[in-house]
Specification:
Four copies of one chain form a homotetramer. The first copy, chain A, is an alpha/beta fold. The first copy, chain A, folds into two domains: 2-64, Phospho-2-dehydro-3-deoxyheptonate aldolase, domain 1 (Alpha-Beta Plaits); 84-333, TIM Barrel. Helices cover 34% and strands 18% of the residues of chain A. The first copy, chain A, contains eleven helices and 14 strands. Chain A has an eight-stranded parallel barrel with strand order 7-8-9-10-11-12-13-14, surrounded by six helices. In chain A, strand 8 (125-127), helix 4 (145-158) and strand 9 (161-165) form a beta-alpha-beta unit. The longest helix of chain A is centred in the C-terminal third of the chain and has 17 residues, at 317-333. Chains A and B meet through helix 2, helix 6 and helix 7 of A and helix 2, helix 6 and helix 7 of B.
């Protein structure tokens, strides 16, 4: 951390800041410029120091962080890519993993039928929500345990791995009995109670970026889980909230290569939420693969116009099959396979 | 809801949409323009209809919502202002309520001392966090039950009401034993599991706008709680995330009068989080009062430079007293009192 | 346009609105719901009607636009893709066009050397700024006419087409003497005086999206130029301003397929400004091609660490050559060539 | 500026960076931490150094600016408030100045009538657009010279000062013949050709913040004008573009006190554009005064529902008079007068 003193800050103000830094077990490095004094804070645990209290000390202009606030999630911690295994599927390796399925599990036949179709098209993980975070209390809230059972049956029949969302600490045990991968949705990206509890499980976690989460916050979310002992975390770009209203969200394609550079964790892309519009999903899925994503999550519904949720951004099985076929040569062009 | 058909949409496409609308128990009103056909959806429960599935039907260009998706929280539902009572304090009436205290309860003496000081300056509610949502897992996470006990003791000694944050469904019972008002933080604004559970309690809830929450989402959060039976909800503007980095957040002062027009619930303002900088808090607190806020929440710490959290945006007791004194004539200018 | 009346709006209020609509030469279509009356405005010139005045009429809740406010730029106006020709280069056809070169023309040899290098790597258009919009008045402002002469000489030697920025109405004549394509920068996207004047020229215009411009505003900018008679416009996604600070801008990859669907004009992508970081440019350039861009603009400098502007986002010639080579199989995968 | 080297950057990389810094006439201060080396750049002209080229040098992680990039606009340059005089009106002093009038000058009688009414209510400056930046080429573009003449006549009759927008370098001479204050609109905030040309005039300039301009960019815009020799600049908060769609813009009330702290220039507020909705203008105008604004600009139209532009955010004369009356006690509460 660097502390910039105000122009004309006095010697006693500088000394007070230095004393406070040293009190916390860090060393300082003073740099007196013509206009200002700058205080460098040196120590191995810089990610643990708090900037804020220094900002209200007399004579301080501002503080700036030099190191990332995360450690376990960083490339410095683990230079080679982490590969996560879920029901036989290797996530984060040379093969690009396609996770597909409906937003919500709407019934037994519906999910089983969809599972067969997405498997045939090339998916290896089946997605489907049993507990649903809906923006209206009047909307369908998910089938709960019943939905989990149907998912497990679909896994049984197809051999696919399954992923489903967990929304609350008290649901972890139940969801964990069924799922291969816990999904944490965008709205729970900073639900620290949930993240900490997932850090005490031993199942992979698929962590979505917050609705307006920064890349830094996404990695801090991963750090929360990892600092609890569970190192099997995937991070997912799913579009961010911007001023643009022509699309539901803005898929931040920059995040894909940047995350690959900052972290060793698998990097996922969710073009359905990233765009909110079926007609943009294929092009953005291709872009994500070209940009280096390890995982694609695609919403697929047997009849999108009758979907109980997210119909506007779900592909039908035919569209999904065509998309996967079109993705293969792009994957090949960047040295990967699907 | 209005469904806009594409230019050149065929008769059978229009009929299919009409049939789907009617299937769901709504009536339609067709309007054939020179360029496009527009289908109006008519019914008393418009806030329950889903737009999305219609957007993927053949021939549909887009859908537009006409009515608000919330009902209980709206002005139409309750034309006069809701007044909420907490330990003798009336919130939402002619008197502007000042809630003050530290970000975190750091110890027994600290919170009791602060309670006396903020009371003397004019506050009637004491705030302080016992369970803390911190962006780093390496930061102080709150004193938990111990913190709640100190808060209760401070209430005992001063007669102030108390408000403290609840982060998770499994904490509600414990926190509810102590607090007068549940606070839901910005990061949990769309933690629907938590909101639903709070809807089943009978204590007032202070609901903060999400970090990048819309005004609509804030009111839908209130609707979640109210639809569970708990009508005692306050909504709080606390700054939103924008591209501007000169301040921590952008206090959305427009939200204050707009919320007053849209809802009957008390409207709160949090200038500390809204700015992130002590030096801006007084001016923005004044702005909030001038704009019509019913409640001000202000972070006050006996020694901000030694605060365990949010030091950079906390007033010291002297600054707080001066601020309340300066707020009184502004309150008077808009026909209120502090 | 649709005008939504308030709940309980009276008959005389409705009649006043209807009268005002008809006054302006449009027809109305009334739809009386249980809760509200909705007034549809019908007419061929809907893109010319103003919403705003209706919003302050008594009894009006809000207005909603149904049709796009642009006409000449829309797909409805010209269903097949527009192909623009500049010094023998066809822009918008089956071949993806690569425009490359330095941010600023820094000298004669520098631009000529760069021209030869980018041509060899596969570019067909040379970019370089002679008039520079710099955020500081203390920064290098461009070589002006001298820079234009060097660009023209580079064209002479290489056969490349050239593109350079024009910032002001009074520069159009001078810049037009030299350039093959006028570039309008992000900061001038809503400089309507400039757009109108360019609409009276007969040279192609490369129009960048504003720094926080919507897709709609980008197309309205094109409409400004086209309504003046110049139909040779390209629109360029170059990253938008969001809350994310890990990158300079957020490249809005959604905009690429959406623009292809909304307009017949060539769609360009600028990954250098879209990311601001050399280390992200190749991945985002690949994403843009996979998403369907017709044109890539890439900043290339012989020695980025000594560039007078935009060094942090410029590739060196070696990196550029490698990028173009890696783009070819992706272009092929989406049925294009480079 | 501070240059942070990568973990493990080599000695030769550090030396290369140091050499490059010294080449440009600055001194360096090296700070070797356990993990990283940090290079401080020291010199009186830090606002002139370019960060970017350093970011692509081998071994460099990132650069951080310590000082503001503006000088003449900063509080350090002129500690006391600048007061600007326009036709007898002192702007930036103890008296809060109210500028009022229609968005567009629509005719002779209309502007003269409005001038009398706003003067009577308490305004001292008359606003009105003769050259209009409209988002559609099909909208009314302003009366041009004719509008300027009517404004001048209104000044003649009322003694008010006048302010009107200038959009282009070639309009400066004409507009300057009539106006007392040049207005630069949000869309031209980074039209550097225009700012430079206004820096060579000797009339006050009212500079609006860009549609998504940062506070820093607003002050750099002022610096552009001031560096040309014209020190009479006012800066205006007019709402920024955010993800919130319930209002047209988000009025950034934080900017008011922050600007007062960063600059000596008068700070203005435009609640009409800041909200876009008549029903929010009064509350936000009050907030701006409470937060410390020196100037309020208010759109007033004799019949907003028939305004040719900006009707939805214009007060009628009656509403305006009432607002000014309500503002007086708030001004008094913060030690000012209207």
């Amino acid at each position: 951390m660097i502390i910039v003193m105000k122009q004309g800050a006095g010697q006693s103000q500088i000394e007070a800041v230095v004393a406070r830094v040293e009190e916390q077990g860090f060393k300082v490095h003073l740099s007196r410029g013509e206009a200002r004094t700058i205080i460098g804070v040196i120590g191995a645990d810089e990610h643990k120091i708090q900037q804020e209290p220094f900002e209200v000390m007399d004579g301080v202009e501002k503080t700036m962080r030099v190191m990332q606030p995360y450690k376990l999630a960083s490339r410095d911690f683990a230079p080679s890519d982490t590969v996560i295994h879920a029901n036989g599927v290797a996530i984060g390796g040379q093969q690009i993993v396609v996770m597909a399925g409906p937003c919500s599990v709407e019934g037994r036949e519906m999910i089983i039928e969809t599972a067969h179709m997405v498997k045939e098209a090339g998916a290896t993980v089946l997605r489907g929500g049993a507990f649903k975070p809906r923006s209206s209390p009047y909307s369908f809230q998910g089938l709960g345990r019943e939905g989990l059972e149907y998912l497990a049956e679909a896994r049984e029949q197809t051999g696919l791995a399954i992923i489903t969302e967990v929304m609350s600490v008290d649901e972890i045990e139940l969801v964990g009995e069924y799922t291969d991968i816990f999904q944490v949705g965008a709205r729970n990206n900073q639900n620290y109670s949930l993240l900490k509890a997932l850090g005490r499980t031993n199942k992979p976690v698929f962590l979505k970026r917050g609705i307006s989460g920064t890349i830094n916050e996404l990695l801090m979310g991963a750090e929360y889980i990892m600092s609890g002992g569970n190192m099997q975390v995937m991070v997912c770009e799913r579009g961010i909230r911007t001023y643009e209203t022509a699309t539901r969200n803005t898929f931040d394609v920059n995040a894909v290569p940047l995350l690959k550079q900052l972290t060793h964790l698998p990097v996922c892309a969710d073009p359905a939420h990233g765009t909110g519009m079926v007609k943009l999903v294929p092009a953005v899925a291709k872009a994500a693969v070209a940009a280096g994503a390890d995982v694609l999550m695609i919403e697929v519904h047997p009849d999108p116009a009758r979907a109980w949720s997210d119909g506007a951004q779900s592909l039908n099985p035919h569209q999904f099959k065509q998309l996967v076929d079109e993705l293969r040569p792009i994957a090949a062009a960047v040295g990967r396979e699907i």
